[in-house]
User: Fold these one by one.
Assistant:
Number 1:
Amino acid sequence: MTKPKVKRAALAYSGGLDTSIIVPWLREHYGCEVVCYCSDVGQGGEELSGLEAKARKIGATEVIVEDLRVPFVRDFCFPALRAGAVYEGRYLLGTSLARPLIASRQVWAAQRTGSDALAHGCTGKGNDQVRFELTYMALAPQLPVIAPWREWDIVSREDALEYAAAHGVPLAQKKGYLYSRDANLWHISHEGGELEDPANAPPEAMHKLTSSPDKWPNMSEKITVGFESGRPVSVNGKSLGPVELLETLNQIAGRHGVGRADVLESRLVGMKSRGVYETPGGTVLHEALDDLCRLVLPHDLLRTRLELAPRYADLVYNGLWFSPLRRAMQSFFDTALEVATGEVSVELFKGRCVAVGRTSPQTLYRPQLASFSMAGYRPQDAEGFIRLFGLPLATAAQRGQGTQKSEEITTPA
């Protein structure tokens, strides 16, 4: 495959091992200038500290750092929450949601700086390469993509560390500490190292957002989350913006160890992989909103949301955020949850969160109908309803001369 002629490449830069060594590698192998695009999606000050200075030190021509915390939570996490999106029943899509936002802003940075190529540090066997490149294809299909992990002879993290040392790239990561982590406001993921053996339990010291069991409070804690049309807006009666709300829930739920998930998942590229995820605030929000939906949505709408949620999650996991199908499905979820306004009380206790109370001005629950009292209800109406509902059964029975095979009828012992 012929290499494209590149004058300036816009690199999605995190300051971690892979993207740091890519800067000198691009200059060496493509002879191009490198624009490092960095985004703050809530990964924390430790990762962002000194990022621009470090990028320039290792050869970046230009560095762009953007604070994307609000759009990440408001425009990516919360829409997926309204969709009830959970991949394979366990993974709340933290990394999957951040990648299309980062890649879309990287495209913007490339256009702003006159870059004629896009580059990323995703490995050749992971999902993120797909997520980045499908976003590029949706927004800037004319720009060539450079994916060093599919070109260079580096095959392991040990190799990458050696390359960094040889090229004067400063790194916090050392041999013997080889977890691959991705953090943002929604979650933190842990992969690699001893986790590559699925028989190994996750080391307790590995966790960052959730406290260890020996520190979990011995008393449960109840919190109340408020929603407007499926959008989280308050905690314990206090109105909060998207970022502050999620930070608050992360802190409270994390203290109780809520939101851990040890997942053997099916990667899009065809293999099983293991990730350990911590999503404390997101876990509370999913529990609360799902419970609110049961209060305010009619059965057919609730059932359809539950049926479509896994398909939506697959689209997000597979990098198809900007696809017409994802956008169309989002319109359905947003419309369906226009009535999802109210408050849900959630109890947190030793790693668990359970909805225990809910109120809504849009409630479909009527005590006078649900109670054992017959006031305001005509039980006689049930006779005709049952007769019509059971008509297909009666018709089928008549077709068989009104008899059943003996083996189909259970008899007393």
Number 2:
Amino acid sequence: MKEIEQLVAELKQLRDELALRVHLASMEIHQDWNKLEKDWRQFKTRAALDETAEGVSEALGQVGQELRAGYRRIRKALEED
């Protein structure tokens, strides 16, 4: 499996795990989640186009890392509540 495909799978799993918990969370977490949802949609679109250029792959990896960090931040905040 390609690196980007692995990243997409990891992010999808993190996102799915958090979706219900975020629904019940504070407004601050909702705001973070909404931003990540926008980034997720863009990431998924770019991941589908990953085959077109190496530069896109590098940028996509960076966005994926940012999404991962955001999802982990939300998970940590939910665990602290």
